[in-house]
Amino acid sequence: MKSTKDQPSDNSLLAEAERVELTSRAGGYKTRNLVKKAEEMLANSTTAQK
Q1: Angle at Cα 18 formed by Cα 14 and Cα 24, nearest 5°?
Q2: How far apart are CA 44 and CA 38, in angstroms?
Q3: Would the pTM of this model clear 0.70, i.e. be above it?
Q4: What is the pLDDT of residues 6-45, one digit of tens each?
């Protein structure tokens, strides 16, 4: 039974999991920054209208 070629090794699975975790963490950080900027822009526009 030679299934080592078909299935990725544990090491590459771990590396892939780490990579996905890092990119999703970075994506969450960018999203929070965008939301914060949008909230600031909304606050500025509502105070300017008063």
Answers
A1: 145
A2: 10
A3: no
A4: 565 788 999 999 999 988 888 888 899 999 999 999 999 8
Distance CA 12, CA 3 (A): 15
The two three-digit tokens of residue 31, written as one number: 């999203």
Contacts for 8 with CB less than 8 Å, ≥ 6 apart: 16
DSSP string, 1-50: ---TTTSPPHHHHHHHHHHHHHHHHHHHHHHHHHHHHHHHHHHHHHHHH-
Task: Tally the residues of the chain.
Answer: 50
